[in-house]
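Task card 7
Instruction: Convert sequence to structure tokens.
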Amino acid sequence: MNLSSMMGAQAQQMHQTLNSSLLKSALSTQAATSIQMLEKMNEAQENLTNTRQAPHPSLGKNIDLKL
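Output:
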């Protein structure tokens, strides 16, 4: 093997290593972002269920009867 073919093989191996490292980093970032989104969605859902509705202004005070 001559020097340029050895360097070419090393460059290709380094390129593959870099690509796999970048892919792993991107997947980790996406996973973390997904977890944050799910947590925010869960918090929003809890806030909706914990929010009390305003009472009806005449609930239980007036009775409508028709005879």
